[in-house]
Each structure stands twice: as C-alpha cells, then as structure tokens.
C-alpha cells in the first residue's frame, strides 16, 4: 500500500486553502484527474459550516448527494476537520466562538493499488475566536475519510 508524495490527498487539500498555491495545486489535481471544490464560510453555528461544505461539494460534483456512502464519508471528514479547528471541542456558539474559514474538498485515489478506492479530504483554514473583530487567531483542520 504505497502512497506517493505527489498523491497526498490531505496535503493537497490543505495547500488548496492557501491562495498563493492554488494555481499550482489545481493544475496538479487536474493532472491526477481528481475532483475538488473550494469556498468560504463564516459562522457561529456548526450546522451552517457543514451545510456550506456539503452544498459546495454536491454543486461541484465532488460527491453525489444521492449516495449515502459518499455523503457519509464527506460528513465524517468535515467533522474531523472541525475537531482540528476547535481543538477537539466541536462547539462554537455555546462557547461564544465564531469562525471565518476557507475550505477545500479533494476527492481522489491516493494509493497506487486501485483496490484501496477513493478517498476524500476536507481542509479548513482561517480564524476562530470570540465574536469580536480582532480577538480571533489562526486555526486549521484536516479530515480524511475513505468513500
């Protein structure tokens, strides 16, 4: 089960959230034949963040919204990435925290053995803090799941 350095799905998803690397990464993803989407979301409510990422993923055909296994894999990757953003406590509003995030979702086959199937990565980068401008700090999260 070999995973080559140019096929690290999580690293590519994270790099896609940084504006200075987007062109290089999107070209690479195109060469691999992988699908992806990007977007921004800000909220104090977890369900709005999940909905924004799910909607972008469906609209950009990264996942098929009619297939439970694809939506389930995406959901778990989102929650895992939010655990990184929130340092393990996936709560925002109740703890008086808000986030402003850029996200990237990447779907591909990171292993040489085709039997390993497709995987999905959700990367988040942005700010988290009290709902007062200027009191936030940087944060990031990454979630990877098999489809």
UniProtKB/TrEMBL annotation:
Keywords: Activator, Histidine metabolism, RNA-binding, Transcription, Transcription regulation. InterPro entries: Regulatory_HutP (IPR015111), Regulatory_HutP_bacillales (IPR023552), Regulatory_HutP_sf (IPR036482). Pfam families: HutP. SUPFAM superfamilies: Hut operon positive regulatory protein HutP. Signal peptide: none annotated. Gene3D superfamilies: Hut operon regulatory protein HutP. The keyword Cytoplasm does not apply. Antiterminator that binds to cis-acting regulatory sequences on the mRNA in the presence of histidine, thereby suppressing transcription termination and activating the hut operon for histidine utilization. This is Hut operon positive regulatory protein. It comes from Bacillus carboniphilus. The gene is hutP.
